[in-house]
Structure formats: structure tokens, C-alpha cells
Design goal:
The complex is a heterodimer of chains A (about 600) and B (about 350). With about 600 residues, chain A is mostly helical. Chain A has two domains: about 15-40 and about 385-530, Orthogonal Bundle (MetI-like fold); about 45-365, MetI-like fold (Orthogonal Bundle), CATH 1.10.3720.10. Chain A has helices at about 1-10, 15-35, 85-110, 120-125, 135-145, 150-160, 170-195, 200-205, 210-240, 245-250, 255-265, 270-290, 300-305, 320-350, 365-370, 375-405, 410-420, 425-440, 455-480, 480-490, 495-525, 525-530, 550-555, 565-595; strands at about 65-70, 70-75, 115, 165-170, 315, 350, 360. Chain A has a three-stranded mixed sheet with strand order 1-2-4. The longest helix of chain A has about 35 residues, at about 375-405. Chain B is elongated, with a radius of gyration of 24 Å. Chain B has eight helices and 19 strands. In chain B, a hairpin with a 2-residue loop joins strand 9 (about 205-210) and strand 10 (about 210-215). Chain B has about 350 residues and is an alpha+beta fold. Helices cover about 25% and strands about 35% of the residues of chain B. Chain B has two domains: about 5-225, Rossmann fold (3-Layer(aba) Sandwich); about 235-360, OB fold (Dihydrolipoamide Acetyltransferase, E2P) (Beta Barrel). Classes of the chains: A mainly alpha (about 600), B alpha+beta (about 350). The interface of A and B includes residues 6, 9 and 10 of A. The structure holds adenosine-5'-diphosphate and magnesium ion. Adenosine-5'-diphosphate binds near residues 16, 39, 40, 42 and 44 of chain B. Chain A: Keywords: Cell inner membrane, Cell membrane, Membrane, Transmembrane, Transmembrane helix, Transport.
Chain lengths: ~600, ~350
């Protein structure tokens, strides 16, 4: 017994605080809200979900309709409609599979081979990583959507002499938009996995005469499977929780839209109970694959990847056949996926773009951002929320990373899990949980989102976007030998002193890199922003509480704006600024962590 | 000056018991080496003494004070790490001054002591350099200066020279010992290099699989190893398996193939199998009173300059033995020779599981 006490005495107060801060925060402001989704289920009759609206095993109509009007061929891809739940699941599975294939192929081509134009390929593949919520899908709709005024793709086909109109709509449109936006997440994860392969492994295989497809199939693929799985799982979750594409395509028969709608009227078809039930289903659908490949999403695996190989391999020469595949097969896909990002910039400088082609050049859209009070308010709000969330992320994220990296006590695994879990939980579930939780325990106080969304938004941002900082700091700590700290301790330094004089000076770059990443993901956060953020009034109110993404969404939905600008173009101008910021941050943050030509797995 | 007493120290890491009841008494002002092969638990033991880990059971005493559960900063030890752990964001001066600043000494005193330590280790003029601007040997000296300047009760060194080249290792180990004696600090030095341990220590202990196998002065350990493991591990040795034919006081005659080898006996019994360990660099090709003989057929002879390395198979025996013979003439392969060793350079031990490499057991 005496021994036990003396062992406890060894634990420094500082260490205990470092452990308790993030643990208590995440338990109370992440786990508890998410768990309170269950509270919303009280008295819910699950039979209500047993209707064709939610699950429909006998869909009518064909997913792809082909009709001819005179000489013109119309191909309309609208996907199936098998009810809200199955639609979400089917869509996510298709998006995940297609993204995995495209992302892996692109990564193998760009990461493994050298060929003329490789850099262009790399830039195109990375472009969609600059997230521009809502606007991105809006441009996808202009480019490829089914539109009576025609879309850009069909316009181009017509000029190539093909009398065909191709258009994506409904679930088909969502699927397309998500694939184009999300496949780079697989791409970048696989690229990172490739970067962790040591040169000797590939040289050995080459020596033994393995090359081309055989080399890829027998040597490379087995080593990048974790990267593919990690990327694909993230895509799956992002697809499941994405509410931007359904809103823009105005397609309500998916889970995310249904949950989103709850916040419009505080009732949806089926009431609170149905929304809670859908949240729970979405959560389970997200957590199951996550649980299976948990190892590859852990801090340890991430840190190993971002360290890269001790000796990276030299890229292989791409043969003639490979070149043909690269240019005829891969390049068109990369262009098609990068086009929306480029389209956003075009739209931002256009007077009008509703049909196949944009019209007129203008800077007016940018002017509107600053001159329309309700629009500008979004920027002010976002920056304010960020200013409060960042210090929290810095302290909590550092504490969590330090404890997980350095303290070896049973139960630390819980914090490892807790601090990365927000990546796995769909944002809408978090938003819904926050609403239920705070509205229940703090009704009428500033914590009640109906009273003031601001506090809840800051709390939610800090919890959801902390993992990026935790991962970055954790990686930095693993690269700093523990003996550096022990040397100081043995010279008489207390834990607090060691943290200040040794640890912080050695890992501050990782902290900054992590905070930069967390920042751009706070600024581009959608789920909580457009739900809780909407509770403070619409953007016509110059004092609304919505952040940037909420304003962008409202602009995309708006029919017109006073002063004559196309609201979607103003949204594009905001998105363009956001993307520029993201590009800058990704560049700064990864150039440090990417010493060996290694890309940071940043999503 | 501090005496270190370790009582029945046990430590598990993960599922494995790394230290299985360590007992040691390290005298005040002594240079004590802990010698053992890689993985034997040396670093773990040192980390327990430093306070980076706590034992599962057992006690660590500094003089009469129980420090078992004290935190590292409360113990008054200083540790020199295998990779030196210099802080890359601090200059040499700042690295060395760190421990004194922690103690909140007045500025002038810090300065005086740092200069003293830097001078002691021949680092004058390097004050403003950063660790990456130093050679390996210089970094090692800074690590040492940083530990010494705080005048620790106990100085712990974990293979501090293993990252340096052979020449520098030799030079620095002499310097470390000299400093320790001058300052009168109790030092515990961990190494896997038996020659280094013998050269540097007042006394040493052999660690094997988390247990202390044997301890004593370098002379005792080298000249009269009490355990088979020690006998094989220390010095340049060869060994063979045989059957004891005769035990006479502390001497035993062991049959190895056709040879009957005289040896110093360590608990062997007549009629039983035994391992005979030869100090392979103490042999000659000429007979003399008090020498025992082994005759065998040469397989691989190699000229090594000061001596000849001869591999030979003793007559009637199945394994090769290696001897180092101070001759300039290389015996041709296939020839038969007889090597002679002083009996005190041949020791026999009962066969012990797990000490001899497996391939030789069959
Ligand atoms: N954190 C740990 N968890 C589990 N086993 C460990 C850990 N650290 C060391 N070991 C094991 O303990 C044994 C002794 O390690 P160590 O004390 O470092 O030996 P040495 O310093 O003598 O080489 C080794 O077998 C090693 O694999
Ligand atoms: Mg060691």
C-alpha cells in the first residue's frame, strides 16, 4: 500500500493537468453531446423508418435515362432512389470505391513514375484538396449537371461534333460531385504510403527482374494497402456526412439532408425522434469501417507515414504503354476533377454564369463581399470564432499529443482514441448532438444554441478540428528523442520547466503547422456551421451569427442579390479567397513536415 | 560521495520481466561498470537508478536514503545518454549551464562553473556553437560537461562511447576515468564492451538476462571468472565440451577428444560433462612446466601481424577452436600442432543451459 502511494506521488501535477484537460474537454464537449443523440431517441418508434421514404427496395425508373429528341441524344444520370437510408449508403459506397480506384491509380502514376508532364498531373490531382464548400458542387452542376440551358461538357461535346447532352442530377449528381472532390484524399494517402517505402525494397525487386504491373501488384500494392484503406475510409465518412452536394443538387432523399432539415424548422418528417434515429444510423454506418481499420488511422501510423522513408526511392521511367494510359485515361479524369476548382475562380470573376458558359469579366463579386453587411459579417464571425477556438486547440491539442506520446500508463489509449475520434464522427451528428445536449442542459443560458450559437460553434470547432493539431504535434514529438527531456529531468528540472525550456522550443514548428491546418478546417467547416450557425438569423440580418460557410450556402441558395450581382458568383469570390488561404496554409504547413518530398496527409 | 545500494530490483516492461532481482552495492566514489550483452537489461537498470522508471519491487538506496520512488529531479543524479541528448536549440554554453540555472545559482557562479567544466573537458572556445556544429567526440564531451557541472551525487553513463570510432573511444574512456577520480563522484557506467569495462572500472558486474551473474574487480573477473558465462564473455576465449576424468582440489582434468586438458575447476564433478574455457590469447607453441597441451589439426591459419590466428580441430573432437599464437610463422593448413596454455588460463565449468550457443550444443 505504501508503495502505491509513493508511486502516485511521482505523477507530477503538470502531467495530470495535461491529461485531464483534453480528456475532460472531449468527454464533456464531444462524447457527451454525441451520446445525447441517444436521448433524442426516447420514445421513438423505429417502425416509423419502415416506410419506402426511408428504405425502398423496389425503386422505379432507371438510374440512367437515354432519350433522343430528333438528332440529339440525351443522357441523364440521376441514380437510384431507394429511400433516404439506402440512398446514402449506396452513394457513399460508390463514391468510396470509385475514389479508391482513381486515387490509387493517380498516386501510383505520379508517385512511382517519372514522365513528361508529371508536375502538371500532380498539380491537377492536388487541386480539389482546396475545399470550397457548396460552390464546388455548384460549379460541378454548371459543368456536368442536367440543365435545360445545357452544361459546359455537352457544349464542348457539341463543338467536337457529338450531338449528345450529358447531365448528372439527383443522387447521380451528388455521387459525381463527391467523387471529383474526394478522390484526392485517397490519392494523397496513397502518395504518403508510397513515400514511406524504402528505396532498398523497390531496388531489390527491380534487381530480381520485377517490373511494370508485376512490380506494382506484387511489391507496391501490398505496402500501400494501409494508405488506400485509410484514404477510402475517410472518403466514405466525408461522403456520408456531406450535406453540401445534396443541398446544391436540392436532393433531399439522403440522411444528411434530412438531419440538416431538422434545423430548418426543428421538425423534420418524423420529428426529433426520426432525426435522432437517422443520426444514430449515420454514426453507426461511419464507425463500423472506422473501427475495422482503426490501426491505420491511429496517431502512430500517421506519424510513421509523415516521417517518410529513410531513403526514398528514385522514380521509375514510364514506358510507352504507360504514357498512353497516363495521357488518354488518367489525365482526362484529373482535368474533369480539377475543372470545378478552376471554374470557381472563373465564376468569381464572372458577371454571370448560369448556362454552359460564363459571361463577362468583373471584380464586382469581391466588392460585394465587403460591402454587403450580411456577407461580410460571415467573415467577421468566422475570424472571431477562430480566434477563440485556436488557443483552445493549441492547449488541448498539445496536451493530448504530449500525453499520448510520452506517458506510458494504462488508459492513455483512451485519450489517443478520443483525440482522433472527431475525425470519424459525422459533423451533422455532432451538430445534432450539440443542439440536443446544450438545449437540454443549458436552456436559456448562453450555452443554449438558440440563445447564442457563437459559444457552441467555438466549442464544436475546437473539438472537431483539434485532431489535426494533435497529429502534427504528436509526429513532432516522436521525432524528438525522449532522452532530451530525461537529460533535463535528471539535472533537476521539473516537468513544467522541461515543457517550457526543452519541449516547446523543439516542437513549436509542429504546433504551428498543426494550428494552421486546424485553422483552415475551422474556416471551411460545414456541418455545424450551417446548422447551429443558422440559428442566429439569416444573412439579410447584418448581425447574424453564421460563419463563412453558412454565408456561402445562403448565397448559393439565393435567387438574386440586391445590386445585381449573381449571388453564386459572390459565393465563388468568397470561396476563391478561402481556397487561396488554404493553398497558402497547406504550402507552409507541409513544406516543413514534408522534408523528404513527402506530402502531409492533411485530411 | 554517495554509496548506491540496490536490493532485489525487479521490473517488467510489457509482458517480459526485464530485471529479475538485481542486488548491487556500489561504494562511495567508486567507478562501477555494468557489463552485459545487448538486451540484457543494462539501460533499464540505469533508468531505474535515474528515476525515469519505477521498479515493480525492490529498493534503491543512495547512502541510507530510499530513492526508489523519487522523481528524477529529486535524486541528484546526472545521466549521460548513449546518443548524448544534447539540446539542439541551445548552444554548448546553454546546454552546460542548464542544470545550474535550474538550481537558481547566481549568474557569476554559473558562469564560473560552466567555464570550469568546459575547460575540464577541453571545450574552451566552443561556448557559442550549437551541437550540430560539433564533432562526435566534442558532443560527447559536452554531454559529459553538462552532467558533471551540477556535481551530481551519482553519475550514470549509458554506453556513452558506443557512437564514436575506436581511436576516440580509447582516448575518451581514459579521460572519463581520470575526471571521475579527480572529482570523486560515484559513477555507474554501462557498456557491452568487456575490454572497456575492464579498463575503466574499479569494480564491475556482469548482467545476463536481467540477473547479475558475477561481480568483482577487473582482475578477479578476468583471472578467475566464477561463472561459465563470465569466462566466455570476458577476454578472447575459446571453449570446448568434455568429460571430467579427474578432480584434484581446485584442479580438474577434462578429456576433450584425445586431449586430456588440465584446468582450474569451478564446481565440476568426476565423470560429468564440463565446458573448458581457454584464454585463447595466452597460448604458446612451446611446452613448459605448468602448461597444459592441446593437440589438433590446423584448418584456417591467418597472419594478423603481432600474432597468428589459428583455427584448429583438437584431435578426436568435432568442433573448431581458435587460438592466438604470438609467432610469426604460419602453420600450414592440415598440419598438426600442439598449443600450450598455463593451467590458470584454462577453466572448467559444469554445463549450463543457455550460455553456450545452440549450434554447439547438439
Ligand atoms: N518499453 C519496453 N517495453 C518492452 N520491452 C522493452 C522495453 N524497453 C526495452 N525492452 C526490452 O527489455 C530488454 C532489455 O532492454 P535494455 O535495458 O534496453 O537492454 P540493454 O541496454 O542491455 O541493451 C530488451 O529485450 C528489450 O527488448
Ligand atoms: Mg542499452
Amino acid at each position: 500500500m505504501a508503495v502505491k502511494v509513493s508511486k502516485l506521488k511521482r505523477v507530477e501535477k503538470v502531467t495530470l493537468i495535461l491529461f485531464l484537460l483534453p480528456t475532460l474537454y472531449l468527454l464533456s464537449f464531444f462524447v457527451a453531446p454525441v451520446a445525447s443523440v441517444l436521448g433524442g431517441l426516447l420514445g421513438f418508434d423505429w417502425h416509423l423508418l419502415n416506410t419506402p421514404f426511408y428504405i425502398n427496395l423496389k425503386p422505379i425508373g432507371s438510374p440512367i435515362e437515354i432519350r433522343s429528341f430528333g438528332p440529339r441524344l440525351f443522357i441523364v444520370i440521376k441514380g437510384v432512389n431507394m429511400g433516404v437510408i439506402l440512398n446514402s449508403l449506396i452513394n457513399s459506397i460508390i463514391v468510396t470505391l470509385v475514389s479508391a480506384v482513381i486515387g490509387t491509380a493517380a498516386a501510383l502514376l505520379i508517385g512511382l513514375y517519372d514522365f513528361p508532364g508529371r508536375r502538371l498531373f500532380a498539380v491537377l490531382a492536388a487541386l480539389p484538396l482546396l475545399v470550397a464548400p457548396f460552390v464546388n458542387t455548384y460549379v460541378v452542376k454548371l459543368l456536368y449537371g442536367f440543365n435545360l440551358q445545357g452544361n459546359t461538357l455537352s457544349y464542348l461535346l457539341q463543338h467536337l461534333g457529338l450531338k449528345v447532352t450529358i447531365g448528372f442530377t439527383q443522387l447521380g449528381g451528388i455521387t459525381l460531385a463527391q467523387i471529383l472532390a474526394f478522390y484526392p484524399i485517397v490519392y494523397i494517402n496513397v502518395l504518403a504510403a508510397l513515400g514511406a517505402i524504402d528505396a532498398s525494397l523497390i531496388e531489390q525487386a527491380l534487381n530480381l527482374g520485377s517490373r511494370g504491373f508485376k512490380l506494382i501488384r506484387t511489391i507496391i500494392l501490398p505496402m500501400i494497402v494501409p494508405g488506400i484503406l485509410a484514404g477510402a475510409t475517410l472518403v466514405y465518412i466525408l461522403s456520408l456526412e456531406d450535406v453540401g452536394a445534396p443541398i446544391v443538387f436540392n436532393y433531399k432523399n439522403v440522411i444528411s439532408y434530412q438531419v440538416y432539415e431538422f434545423f430548418q424548422e426543428f421538425t423534420s418528417i418524423g420529428g426529433v425522434g426520426a432525426s435522432a434515429a437517422l443520426c444514430l444510423i449515420m454514426l453507426l454506418l461511419a464507425l463500423i469501417p472506422m473501427a475495422i481499420i482503426r490501426k491505420y488511422l491511429s496517431l502512430k501510423y500517421y506519424a510513421r507515414l509523415s516521417r517518410g522513408a529513410p531513403r526514398p526511392f528514385k522514380r521509375l521511367k514510364l514506358g510507352k504503354k504507360g504514357l498512353i494510359v497516363a495521357y488518354l485515361l488518367v489525365l482526362p479524369v484529373l482535368i474533369a476533377a480539377a475543372a470545378p476548382q478552376i471554374g470557381i475562380i472563373v465564376l468569381a470573376f464572372s458577371e454571370r454564369w448560369v448556362g454552359a458558359l460564363p459571361q463577362g469579366f468583373t471584380l464586382r463579386n469581391f466588392y460585394f463581399i465587403f460591402s454587403k453587411p450580411g456577407v461580410f459579417r460571415g467573415i467577421v464571425n468566422s475570424v472571431t470564432y477562430l480566434a477563440f477556438a485556436l488557443p483552445m486547440i493549441a492547449i488541448l491539442g498539445f496536451a493530448a499529443a504530449y500525453v499520448v506520446a510520452r506517458i506510458r500508463v494504462k488508459g492513455i489509449g483512451l485519450l489517443d482514441l478520443l483525440s482522433t475520434a472527431p475525425l470519424a464522427v459525422p459533423g451533422l451528428v455532432v451538430a445534432f448532438g450539440y443542439f440536443i445536449f446544450f438545449h437540454a442542459i443549458a436552456q436559456g443560458t448562453p450555452l443554449d444554441p438558440l440563445v447564442s450559437p457563437a459559444v457552441v460553434l467555438v466549442l464544436a470547432y475546437a473539438a472537431r478540428k483539434m485532431p489535426f493539431t494533435v497529429r502534427s504535434v504528436y509526429t513532432g514529438l516522436l521525432q524528438t528523442p525522449r532522452a532530451m527531456e530525461e537529460a533535463a529531468e535528471s539535472l533537476g528540472a521539473t516537468k513544467g520547466k522541461v515543457l517550457r525550456s526543452i519541449v516547446l522550443p523543439l516542437v513549436w514548428r509542429s504546433i504551428i503547422a498543426g494550428l494552421l491546418l486546424s485553422s483552415i478546417y475551422v474556416l471551411s467547416e460545414v456541418s455545424v456551421s450551417v446548422t447551429i450557425g443558422a440559428l442566429g438569423g439569416d444573412i439579410v440580418d447584418p448581425n447574424h451569427a453564421g460563419p463563412i460557410t453558412y454565408v456561402i450556402m445562403r448565397l448559393i441558395q439565393a435567387p438574386s442579390i440586391s445590386g445585381g450581382a449573381q449571388p453564386q458568383a459572390v459565393a465563388a469570390a468568397m470561396a476563391a479567397i478561402l481556397m487561396a488561404l488554404e493553398a497558402l496554409v497547406l504550402f507552409v504547413a507541409t513544406s516543413r513536415l514534408a522534408r523528404r518530398g513527402q506530402m502531409l496527409v492533411s485530411v | 560521495m554517495t554509496q548506491v545500494i540496490i536490493r532485489d530490483l525487479r521490473k517488467k516492461l510489457g509482458k517480459n520481466e526485464i530485471l529479475k532481482g538485481i542486488n548491487l552495492e556500489i561504494r562511495s566514489g567508486e567507478f562501477f561498470a555494468i557489463l552485459g550483452p545487448s538486451g540484457s537489461g543494462k539501460t533499464t537498470l540505469l533508468r531505474l537508478i535515474a528515476g525515469f522508471e519505477v521498479p515493480d519491487s525492490g529498493q534503491i538506496l543512495f547512502d541510507d536514503k530510499d530513492v526508489t520512488y523519487l522523481r528524477p529531479d529529486e535524486r541528484g543524479v546526472a545521466m549521460v545518454f548513449q546518443n548524448w541528448a544534447l539540446w539542439p536549440h541551445m548552444t554548448v554554453y546553454e546546454n552546460v549551464a542548464y542544470g545550474l540555472k535550474i538550481k537558481k545559482l547566481p549568474k557569476e557562479e554559473i558562469d564560473k562553473k560552466v567555464r570550469w567544466a568546459l575547460e575540464l573537458l577541453g571545450l574552451e572556445g566552443m561556448e557559442n556553437r550549437y551541437p550540430h556544429q560539433l564533432s562526435g567526440g566534442q558532443q560527447q564531451r559536452v554531454a559529459l560537461a553538462r552532467a558533471l557541472v551540477v556535481e551530481p551525487k551519482v553519475l550514470l553513463l549509458d554506453e556513452p562511447l558506443s557512437n564514436l570510432d575506436a581511436r576516440l573511444r580509447l582516448k575518451l574512456r581514459g579521460e572519463i576515468r581520470k575526471l571521475q577520480k579527480e572529482l570523486g563522484i560515484t559513477a555507474i557506467y554501462v557498456t557491452h564492451d568487456q575490454e572497456e569495462a575492464l579498463a575503466i572500472a574499479d569494480r564491475l558486474a556482469l548482467l545476463r538476462n536481467g540477473r547479475i551473474e558475477e561481480s568483482g574487480t577487473p582482475e578477479e573477473i578476468y583471472q578467475n571468472p566464477k561463472k561459465l558465462f563470465t569466462a566466455i564473455f570476458i577476454g578472447k576465449t575459446s571453449y570446448a565440451k568434455g568429460v571430467v576424468e579427474e578432480v584434484d582440489g581446485d584442479k580438474a582434468k577434462v578429456r576433450v577428444g584425445e586431449n586430456l586438458v588440465e584446468s582450474v575447476a569451478h564446481g565440476v564433478n568426476k565423470g560429468e560433462e564440463a565446458i573448458v574455457v581457454f584464454k585463447a590469447d595466452m597460448c604458446k607453441l612451446t611446452p613448459k612446466q605448468g602448461r597444459t597441451a592441446i593437440r589438433g589439426r590446423v584448418t584456417v591459419p591467418m597472419y594478423m601481424g603481432a600474432f597468428v590466428e589459428v583455427r584448429m580441430v583438437p584431435l578426436g573432437y568435432k568442433k573448431e577452436l581458435t587460438f592466438y599464437i604470438p609467432e610469426q610463422e604460419v602453420p600450414p593448413p592440415g598440419s598438426e600442432i600442439t598449443v600450450y596454455l598455463p593451467v590458470k588460463a584454462v577453466h572448467s565449468y559444469p554445463v549450463e543451459e543457455g550460455v553456450i550457443e545452440e549450434e554447439e550444443e547438439e
